[in-house]
Structure formats: C-alpha cells, structure tokens
Specification:
By secondary structure, the protein is α/β, with parallel strands linked by helices. It has four helices and five strands, in the order E-E-H-E-H-E-H-E-H.
Length: about 100
C-alpha cells in the first residue's frame, strides 16, 4: 500500500487482491492514519480482485471513519469492482469517483 498527501487529502493506493487478510491490513493501516487528514481517497486502480470478505473490510473502514467524522472517497475502480458496489447497493453509501482527480476536488 502506497500513500501520499495531495491537496490536504490522504491518498491511499491499494493493489493486488483485497480479501479478508489484505482487506484487514489495509483497514488497520488507513485507520491508523486517521489523524493525518479528514478526507481519505482510496484508489482501486491496481486492485485486480475484490471478494466479499475484502468488501466487508472496506465497509468496516467506512464505519470507523464515520464514527470520527472522517470522509472516505473511493476511485479508479475496474468495471467489475464498480459493478460489485452497484449490485450490492454500496454505490449509494460510498462516495465513488471515476478518477483520482475528481475524488480530490
């Protein structure tokens, strides 16, 4: 996982597979950074696979963020991952952007 600060927002680049193990690691790492910014942009550009366990960890991340008034924005999803969010109705809960640039605005 790579991170960088852009426009006062913490950008997090996930990669590879997001499953129960990696999803939990990502969630813990991002949660540990909550004091560094109020808005977190999570890029799925290099994610090749997301399963239901990984999705659960992303939902938990949003719950943790909401509790302390932090914002999570998701961006750069593949068509398949975007469809998973739409199919499950999570596209109505998460702020999802096509590009990192639009998520940073």
């Amino acid at each position: 996982m790579v991170t960088e600060m852009k426009s006062g927002k913490q950008v997090v680049f996930l990669s590879g597979e997001v499953n129960a193990k990696t999803g939990n690691e990502y969630k813990e790492a991002i949660t540990a950074m909550f004091n560094s910014a109020n808005t977190f942009v999570v890029s799925f550009k290099d994610v090749v696979y997301l399963n239901s366990s990984g999705l659960r960890e992303i939902i938990d991340l949003l719950k943790n963020a909401n509790k302390i008034k932090k914002e999570i924005r998701l961006c750069e999803m593949s068509k398949d991952i975007r469809e998973m969010f739409s199919f499950t109705g999570l596209d109505k809960i998460f702020k999802i952007y096509d590009t990192q640039k639009s998520a940073l605005e």
